[in-house]
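[job 4417] fold queue: 2 targets
>>> target A
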Amino acid sequence: MKMKQTFMTFIFYSFFVLFLHQSAYSDNVEIIPPDPDTEDNVSLNVTLTLGTPCNDALLTKSIDGNHITLHIQYIDYQGICIQVIDYKTFTVNLGKLEAGQYFVKADNSDEFATTFNVTASESTQNYTGYSVQLTKGWHLLSAIDIPAKPKTIPPDAISAMFRYIDGRYQVVDQLDPEHGYWVKVKHPCKFILKHSVADDEVISINQKIIFEVEYVNYAWSKTHTGFHVNNKGEVIEYSVSDHSVPSTFWRNEKIISETELSAKYSMNSKILKTVSRNELMEKFNLIESALTGERSAQQSECRDAGVTSFVAYTYDSGHYYPEFLYVKGDSAFKNLSDSAREIYNWLGNLTTGYSIGGFCSP
């Protein structure tokens, strides 16, 4: 099971996605990304680590040139009950590979897909992280190099995660390398196990809003103030005069349209300062890492003090998704990651010398 290779060996860990219906199988395969910029010929070992009541192996059959033929064991499942259906063989044109970022999947089907992730085992390349876009439903996934607790964009998309241990499926909150996990997501999302940011990454021109600090207190009078940081680095104060406008923290739906946020920020707005592009990029590049941080237990610090929220936004298709890095006041909790702490401390220092409602530094 070898191909000519001069400088590295790739191992396919079990980053595997299987959907319901055998009839959805397709021989057409597309490569994502289409043209990673690394070598053509590599040596491959394809494995699937999955504990199920069925012990039949699922592995490679042959390798020829840039093609690998996989012997696929179909698995049908209802919830978490798995049954073997059939065996199929198809060929994948590998093309070029990129460590940690290469995927192949069955094409022309919404219900069946086979996805492998490649990582370098003998290479000087540094693997920094990975994520994958998932469709709604069940997926069979695995971590690559270290145990990881997943996060998603939009947040909180995971509704169930199981591992088969000691003869039964057990609920877990962490993925360990070389084990298969059934993960169900409520809607399409980006599934993140480890942060990865290119040095030359730029903020999408479509994401106008990056950070927000918001203070809300309706105990003694109606106060709703704060500031946001946009993709130009402008730190803009606002004060909401229409109190039918929901706060970011108290709103029921944690998906906010750009129109809603823009209307909120336009009320009594004033530019306080502008941060440099480098400073903004440094903090922006911490957001994805902060998404993987654990959250402390929510508690009440005081009464009738209102709530101050430190927020980082992710963006997709005209909608913003708030990630609460630090909340203090009547309700209080923290994202415990180092990245989150660096961001909310930075946000707290941005308005030194300015008075914004009941806002104070963390």
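>>> target B
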Amino acid sequence: MINKVAIILSGLLTVLFLTSISFGESKVEKKNDWEKCEIKGEVKERRVYEYRYFNDSKTEEFFLRKFDRIGNLVEKEERYYEDTTAYVNKYYYRYDDNNNLIEELLFDSKFGSEERVIYEYDEKGQCVEKQMFNSKGESRYRFVKKYDDNGNVIEELYYNWSDTLSNITYRKYDVKGNLLDDGRGTIYKYDDKGNVIEICNFGYEGDLLKKINYEYDNKGILIKDCCFDALNETYDSMKITYNDKGQKIESVVSIYGADGNWLYTNRLKFKYDKKGRLVTKRYSFSRSDPSYTWKYYKETFKYDKNGNKVEHRSYAADDDKKIVYEDEIEIFKYDDIGNLIEYKMKYGKYLSHEVQYEYVYYDE
């Protein structure tokens, strides 16, 4: 599985940078915990039993989630084993009348610890302070946020256990509210449509670590990015192609060394069914190293009549299309509402991972 992970790493940097763009912004769509957990319907309680198999050994874990009538998580339990000893972590959550989280209680049976976290909000519902206390009521840290008139976080202050200010982070925005400087060494540039066109990451001494440039089509869809990694002295370029429906159908990533010589290229093609659902991913790899044999990788997806994914299958092959590792299969089952009730992962004929889900619905 090491090579499979490596496929994705070449494009991971781009994803991480794009994700970081919204980190400093407070104006995000608020979801309840049903939505965060991808739960459908008014679920009061969800129990998850997870099993992993390796040779003749088996490990198991248990996860419990309890929700109120509007989808807020009010209680969580996690049970796991180390050798034959069972440990339980419990969490309790409390909200104000505006459904803002105002208190967390955490109990850890392994270390016998108890922690309490308190949240404070301003009149706009923006979280302005978070403070953690130990079981003795002593502060462990305090985190303060300040906002501009548009709701953007402009200042973050961190106080340590003695309530001494130990770190301040300042964020800068343009007149449109786009993040320009995250205060942690990352600088952003935008075009006149608000699309990010450049991200630069700098070290503590102001030295450039990474730089990414983005190109878009006339619809504002990303079609190309180029990344320079100063630490590893590598350069990569990714081109993306879409169909008439705006779905990605191909991405090509090429990596070059410090001397400008080509190292490898990853090509990924996507295929969709008539309903617009992804049914096939095909990877192909070209390497400058002739000893590298794993050059093809394929994933297929199947869905039920409700559009739920019920199967994910994958395999890898060499130049002669000879499979070089066992077929990997993931199987999903759902209840009538569409909530996942069973997950299984197999390598060939061997079961390696299994998860069972149970739900208790309100008004049952």
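[job 4417] complete. Note on B: The two ends are 43 Å apart (CA to CA).
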